[in-house]
Design goal:
Elements: H1 3-8, H2 20-30, H3 35-51, H4 57-68, H5 73-83
Helix pairs in contact: 2-3, 3-4, 4-5
């Protein structure tokens, strides 16, 4: 991938304008509050959000990678570059 395209990737935009219930669960995950129950609910809600067209499948994959798998920024950027098609 050329440098200009790589620098134009904005993975942070995948977390903008999320439905409130997903944002709320992400905040609980960040605080490591009741992890088992929150992550289970988060997985279900991600599927539902895709089904209801509130987020894309690509966003779902990103959010799972970041918040359920604990991927760091470098891993997320690599995943983004490999997964996203121009």
């Amino acid at each position: 991938m050329d440098k200009e395209r790589k620098n134009s990737l904005d993975i942070n935009s995948l977390e903008s304008n999320l439905p409130f219930y997903l944002w709320n669960e992400i905040e609980y995950i960040k605080k490591k509050f009741c992890m088992d129950c929150v992550t289970a609910e988060f997985e279900v809600d991600l599927r539902e959000a895709v089904k209801c067209h509130e987020i894309t499948k690509f966003q779902k994959g990103y959010l799972e990678k970041k918040y359920l798998e604990g991927a760091n920024e470098e891993d997320l950027r690599l995943w983004f570059e490999q997964t996203f098609t121009f």
